[in-house]
Amino acid sequence: MVRDGIYYGIGLLLAAAVVAYFTTIWLALPPLLVAAFVMWFFRDPARAIPAEPGALVSPADGKVTDISECSVDGTPHTRISIFLNVFDVHINRSPIGGVIRSADYRKGKFLNAMEACSAEDNEQNIVTVEGEGQKIIFKQIAGLIARRIVFTKRIGESVGRGERVGLIKFGSRTDVIFSCDAQVVVKIGERVKGGSSVLARFTNPPNAQKGSAPS
């Protein structure tokens, strides 16, 4: 469980105890149920990270809602969008192993993350990772309910493929942007798991990613 879940859960459990003490146990049931949901929401399951060379893994759990072309500095790229509902694991993971080159936090709106314009208009954190012969951009995008984006890495820090890098609290979206020479292996509507589901494969990768133990 993520530390935030412990803090929120303890607070709600204390509130339930106060309510039960001064009223009845029945009135304490709502905060108890909310506490249980919050602690479940902040779960952090281990994942088996694929070791195959050139694999780009999902940065989050959720449903693939869009696969399209976009432009980065005038060069065509592929973008895969993943929508997270409140029942998905909200831990974010690095799509590839490498070095964090930039992390650009931008304030914005809190539109429904299913809407196409949310990729540009919503509050978001834009992260660039360079490694395995590639430069990948992934976005942590706040949604209609989400109000806080957490990123735990620093610029210049090394990360492994599938390594935890943060989370977005409650419903949200993540986008992964990469070069068009990669072969996309997922489809719109498919559900994926952060760190373990392969979204695309690059041709002629320089090195294999070592290890595939759960993380």
SSE order and pairing:
Blueprint: H1 3-22, H2 29-41, E1 55-57, E2 62-72, E3 75-84, E4 91-93, E5 98-106, H3 118-121, E6 124-131, E7 134-142, E8 149-151, E9 158-159, E10 164-168, E11 172-179, E12 183-184, E13 191-192, E14 198-201
Helix pairs in contact: 1-2
Number of helices: 3
Total separate domains: 2
CATH C-level category of the largest domain: Mainly Beta
Bin the strand percentage.
35-45%
First-residue to last-residue Cα separation? 13 Å
- What would you call the structural class? alpha+beta
Strands of the largest sheet, in order across it?
A: 9-5-6-7-11-3-2-13
Into which percent range does the helicity of residues fall? 10-25%
Q: What is the C-alpha radius of gyration, as a whole number of Å?
A: 19 Å
CATH topology heading of the largest domain: Glucose Permease (Domain IIA)
Tell me about this structure:
The two termini are 13 Å apart. Helix 1 (3-22) packs antiparallel against helix 2 (29-41). This protein has helices at 3-22, 29-41, 118-121, and strands at residues 55-57, 62-72, 75-84, 91-93, 98-106, 124-131, 134-142, 149-151, 158-159, 164-168, 172-179, 183-184, 191-192, 198-201. It contains three helices and 14 strands. Mean pLDDT is 85; it is low at 208-213. The radius of gyration is 19 Å and the shape is elongated. 17% of the residues lie in helices and 37% in strands. The chain has an eight-stranded antiparallel β-sheet with strand order 9-5-6-7-11-3-2-13. A three-stranded antiparallel β-sheet has the order 1-14-12, with no helix packed on it. Strand 6 (124-131) and strand 7 form a beta hairpin. With 215 residues, it is α+β, with helices and mostly antiparallel strands. The chain folds into two domains: 3-41; 55-201, Glucose Permease (Domain IIA).
